[in-house]
Amino acid sequence: MPGSRKPIFHDRFLVIDDVVWASGPSFNELGERIGIISQVHEPRNVIEAIERALGHAKPLADWVDENQLKGTNDERNDAALV
């Protein structure tokens, strides 16, 4: 959760239709170390928690504006070279 010092969620969840998978490792680290991805037995509870958190979340466009991440990747890369 951007801007949060202590995120609401620790694990990573993948929701496909009404099936929820929980991943201990970060998605960008999958395959680098041993980790477990398991199907959640009470998916409705997790889905409801995610929906509550998203209800309080800031729209991505607002977060980008506040963090000055404007422009394309090429424009940001060009600016970094200057």
Would you kindly provide a written description of the structure presented here, covering whatever features stand out?
- The chain has three helices and three strands, in the order E-E-E-H-H-H.
- It is an alpha+beta fold.
- It has one domain (12-81).
- Strands 1-2-3 form a three-stranded antiparallel β-sheet, covered by helices on one side.
- Strand 1 (12-16) and strand 2 (19-23) form a beta hairpin.
- The longest helix has 13 residues, at 43-55.
- It is globular, with a radius of gyration of 17 Å.
Give a nutshell description of this structure.
This protein is α+β, with helices and mostly antiparallel strands. The protein has helices at residues 43-55, 60-66, 73-81; strands at 12-16, 19-23, 37-39.
The secondary-structure class comes to alpha+beta
Instruction: Report the order of strands and helices.
Output: EEEHHH
Q: Order of strands in the sheet with the most strands?
A: 1-2-3
What integer is the average pLDDT? 77
Could you say which overall geometry the principal axes of the C-alpha atoms support? globular
C-alpha end-to-end distance: 31 Å
Q: Total number of β-strand segments? A: 3
The helix count comes to 3
Helix share, percent: 25-40%
**What share of the residues does DSSP label as strand, in percent?**
15-25%
